[in-house]
Every structure is written in structure tokens, then in C-alpha cells.
Here is the input.
Amino acid sequence: MLNRNRILFSQKLEISLIAVLVILSHALTPDTDAKMMSADVSEENLAQATYIIEREIVPDIDEIIVLDAGHGGVDSGSVGENGAYEKDINLAITLKLGEYLTENGVQVIYTREDDQVAWIDTTEDLQKRIDTGIHASASYFISIHLNSSEYNDGARGFEIYTDGRSDDIVMLASSIQTALNGLAYTADRGIKNTHEMGSLYVVDQNPVASLLLELGFISDSSDLTYLNSSYGQQEIAKALGKAILTHLI
Ligand SMILES: [Zn+2]
Here is the structure.
């Protein structure tokens, strides 16, 4: 599957280049009616060539990714000292990540795209999120959260949770860990196995291979400043997006 995507990508790139050469060779062919021809080429044909490039060089990726912005609706998740809600930061990063992946040819499905949620209690909540991935026949389920500590113990950093069910999901976790470390915005608290660290429903009860990302501590002012900024959210989304995309291609 992964190699096939790479082959498709290079074939499409080749086709795009041929299309551009054919159109340009038309443009450069001497013609008695050169004036009309050049007008024809410079607008319509070149626009067509540009369209072909933009459309075709996006890799053809079959996998569907479910992005799950943690909490939502009446469930705000953790709350920062400045009144920031975890649910809002989770959503902002999730939407930016989804935008990055979609632009790069990945099919993305969200468990929620705003603060409206389809469930009314937290028991139903988690299973509904999982069902979204099952119904979509998704390949991966990525849940976005923030951590919090009430002990004023200086806890900060990101954590990645996996049940380690396959080498593939552990490799994706590792790629994401490297990508987040590259941003150097906080500490690396490591990849954690849910069998050792306490069960997480959307990971352990999920038929779809799943990761839960705790991207930092909302209770730490340095983490919160970065996580709550548009710049930080964009950087994290891009880093996560690149790691996921590289894993898929
Ligand atoms: Zn959370």
C-alpha cells in the first residue's frame, strides 16, 4: 500500500510534466496566426497546465484519518489559569491539522468540527467518537488533548499514548514524537503504553489503530502560552501533519 502510493505519485508527476511539455510545445510552434495562438496559449492553455499540476501532484492516499478534538459542548476538559478551555485549544489544533492533511491529499473525518457535539453524556461520548472511525473504515484515529496537573508540581510536556497493538502504530507514535521534539516548545514525556499507564477508552476499545496525544499541560503557563497561541497551534498542526503524511506515503 505504502509503496504503491509512492509509485502512483511518481507516475502522476510524470504525467503532469508530459502534459505541461505538450502544452508548452503547442505554445512554441510557429504559426502564421501567431497573435491569436499566443493569446490562446497564454491564458487558457497555461491555466489548464497549472490546473493539471496542482491537481495531479497531490499524492493519491487511500487511508482515511479520523481526527478527534477531545471534549466539546458541556465538557470543557481542563481549564487553564487564564480561563482557556482545553476543548477550544484541542479543536483549534485539530482543525489546522485537518486542513494541512486535506491539502496534501489525505481524507480526513472529524468527530467534531465545532463546539456542537452529537452526544449529551460522557458515557456515550467516547463510543460515538470511536463509531465515527468504524463507519468510515478509517486507518487511524488521532485524538488531540491537553494534560493538566492540579498539584502545582511544575509538570509540563507532551505525551503520546498507544496500546502498542502493531509496529505500525508505534512507528507513527515515534514519528510524531520526533516531530514535536523538533518544535522544542516543551518537554518530551515520552510514548506511553496504555496497558501500563491506565486504560484509555478511545485507544484501547478502538478497532481502528489509535493514538491519543497530550500536547502539553494547560496548567503550565509556558505550555499554555504556546498552545493557546495561533502561532503555536499552527506549528504543532504542521509538525503533526508532516509526521502523519510521511508515514502514509
Ligand atoms: Zn482531555
Summary: The chain has two domains: 2-56, 64-248. The pocket of zinc ion is lined by residues 70-71, 77, 86, 145 (CB under 6 Å). The longest strand covers residues 209-217.
